[in-house]
Amino acid sequence: MNKSLKSAIAAAMVLAATASLSAAPKKAATIKIGGVAPLSGGVAVYGVECKNGIDLAIAEINAAGGINGKQVEFICEDDEGDPAKSVSAYKKLITKDKTRLIIGSLTSGCTLAITSQAQANKVLQIAPAATAPAITDAGNFIFRTCFIDPFQGRVGGKFSYENLGAKKAAILYDIGNDYSVGLMENFESEFTKQGGTIVAKESYGTGEKDFNAIITKVKAANPDVVYLPDYYATVALIAKQLRAQGVNTPLVGADGWDGLTENAGDEVLNGYYSNHYAEDSDAPAVKKFVGNFEKKYGKKPNAFAALGYDSMYMLKDAIVAAGTTDAAKVRDAIEKTNGDYVTGHIRFDEKRNPIKSAVMVKMVKDGNKLSQAYAATVSID
After folding, report:
1. pLDDT, tens only, 102-119
2. Torsion from C-alpha of 263, 302, 291, 343, nearest 10 degrees
3. Cβ contacts of residue 238 below 8 Å, gap of 6+?
């Protein structure tokens, strides 16, 4: 065999080997985590803060070497708080970005819009803050990091009776909002079970701005406490009108109040709400999280940031335990979660809802700024 023929054969072998290598499936360079959240729109404070918490967790994880040796990439889509856009965001994440692990969305309506599809596609979905009970009904690929509405509604009722000493309560709620209605029903159930009486129960429609007519009825009932289960923008409006009519009794609400510190004034003082953690807690995990968050973003983290942070670390722990990003195997691992996180010790019940306590926080003034402080931890048997 002459030299030129040998050279030609050698060259052909190199080309064949190169072609074989390029044809071989490439291992993913990163672990892609999908996100759906309201980064704009009326409840953007929830989505932006949750994303900040997730981004912080990922920065810490990547700095420590990633997950199973791979860096984490977070692809977050804005649903603007619109369920139809949540569906579009979900479809983009699983088709274009090829992720099978998703954190989101934030509100219950937006999250419910994609749970059935995630279950059908065997996509692992973790809802950081969607508290409606039906969220996990879609099936065993759907988990949540937060407690559920029946629990926090009962927490509000027990706290009002036991901690505030209230015997008479008034309730103002949005009749068109499942979140608000569910909280109202469970507050009423627990408050009356404790021995209290509901002296006024008034509803309003989503988007209403003038509440003076129903507040007049509340004032006439002379309650010891007013339960106000709604989102922060509406809470601020109602609180201002309550105070203007001279209703200065304590106000109690739920986690939808998170965001009031940047979107309300003195009208929400003497207000309390059930939340997932207290930023002034002495727990080492909380102090580390709050310190790192302030260093990165220049402000204190709210509960949505903490829930996002915990969601990412819970997912990371499950991927490590599974040794893979295969959604079914990660699902099996996350179901066995039993550990301490920023928002408390988390383990799951048979519906993949976390078993945990709730804290009540109080709206206070910190100098000229509105702030919040730990008030109590409440457990329900």
Report:
1. 999 999 999 999 999 999
2. 170
3. 172, 211, 215, 228, 230
